[in-house]
Amino acid sequence: KSKVALNSVLMLGDNNIDLVSKSIDECLVNNKVVRLNFIETEDDKKVYYQTVISPLNNDKAIMMVYVINNNITYMKSLIDAKLKATEEAQNMINYFSNMSHEIRTPLNAICGFSDLLVNETDTEMQNKYVKIIKSNTNMLLTLVDEVLNLSRMESGKTEMVFVSVRMNEFVDELAQVHMSMMPKGVKLKVV
User: Fold this and answer.
1) Using an 8 Å Cβ cutoff, are 52 and 26 in contact?
2) Is a pLDDT exceeding 80 seen at residue 46?
């Protein structure tokens, strides 16, 4: 079994002794250079090391330990920033994809019930269609407001306002919209 120099092991930490020892054996058996990367914590800061183990002859190897903290830390911060930006971009894509669908739903209801309203002669049905159109118009305006609010939030110009909502009316409006889209024979019941 290989013997690891004491100062190198102390630098790389006790938990890496077996890995370094196996890597030296691998280097000697395969007659190849082995590279290892380690992260150790010193004074609450991460220190990055790279170890290169090179064979000298059949039974000896030389191990060089480099402290590469500055380069790795900088590169890691760049990678983290890129991952965060990518994640935020994907979240925005998902948001706008969802928002596109959310906008189309009330818009389709407004268009559909407007077409029905034009040909309807029954006053009661006309009033029902007008209420549904008005409700969907309000939903659409709310969605547009939410997009504008998101834009304000992104620019740091947001002011929080809390409003009360009448849940019964909200659920009734939602049910009216979906009732009109139900296939024949399917009923939507609000409980």
Assistant:
1) no
2) no
Instruction: Kindly give, in sequence order, each residue whose CB lies less than 8 Å from that of residue 25, ignoring residues fewer than 6 positions away.
Output: 1, 2
Please report where in the chains the tokens 């090391």 appear, as a residue. Answer: 49
User: In this model, does residue 116 exceed pLDDT 80?
Assistant: yes
Q: How far apart are CA 83 and CA 81, in angstroms?
A: 5
Tens-place pLDDT, residues 99-109: 777 888 888 88
Which residues lie below 8 Å from residue 93, measured CB to CB, with a gap of 6+? none
How open is the CA angle 140-144-145, to the nearest 5 degrees?
Answer: 115
pLDDT at 4 over 50: no
Task: Evaluate whether 40 touches 22 at the Cβ level (below 8 Å).
Answer: no
Q: What residue type is assigned to position 20 of the chain?
A: V
Q: Under a CB-based contact definition with an 8 Å cutoff, are residues 2 and 61 in contact?
A: yes
